[in-house]
């Protein structure tokens, strides 16, 4: 179903990457490679092995957006700041609240699925988490923590964890 006259890639650029000032975010592996994307890897008996798997356009809407750690913090700031980052707005405050509204229980874990986010509590702190990964890029996750208004981003790349923290703007 097409909700816009734009391609998925053009829509994201205009309505997500642009308003959130995400300058190192891409919808294709080839585009990201042109801008210095780190080599992907897969684990083989616990060791990272370089992987150069094909870019599958069909999976982009579900799992294949590429963004720098700095750009992902812009998503966190928008989630913490009622849909706004700097002078750009991703959603209205009501729209952002709807996106983060717990909707469906995830088993008996106490966590719920929202619109692309997992909502739950860790040590009595409300967390909205978002994860992603592909066959050759293992893991990235980000989460907002309330009421302390902090966002954390953690990524697994080449056998090391990178953690970035964003404060509400």
Describe this structure in words.
The chain is an alpha+beta fold and 169 residues long. It has one domain (8-167): Beta-lactamase, CATH 3.40.710.10. It contains 5 helices and 13 strands. The strands form 4 sheets. A 7-stranded antiparallel β-sheet has the order 7-8-9-10-11-12-13. A two-stranded antiparallel sheet has the order 1-4. A hairpin with a 2-residue loop joins β2 and β3. The chain is globular.
Task: State the fourth-level CATH superfamily.
Answer: DD-peptidase/beta-lactamase superfamily
How many angstroms separate the termini?
A: 36 Å
User: What is the approximate shape?
Assistant: globular
CATH architecture identity: 3-Layer(aba) Sandwich
Strand content bin: 35-45%
Largest beta sheet: strand ordering: 7-8-9-10-11-12-13
Instruction: Provide the structure class.
Output: alpha+beta
Q: Uncertain spans, ≥5 residues at pLDDT below 50?
A: 156-169
Tell how many strands the DSSP assignment holds.
13
Mean pLDDT: 77
Summarize the structure.
The protein has 169 residues and is α+β, with helices and mostly antiparallel strands. It has five helices and 13 strands. It has one domain (8-167): Beta-lactamase, CATH 3.40.710.
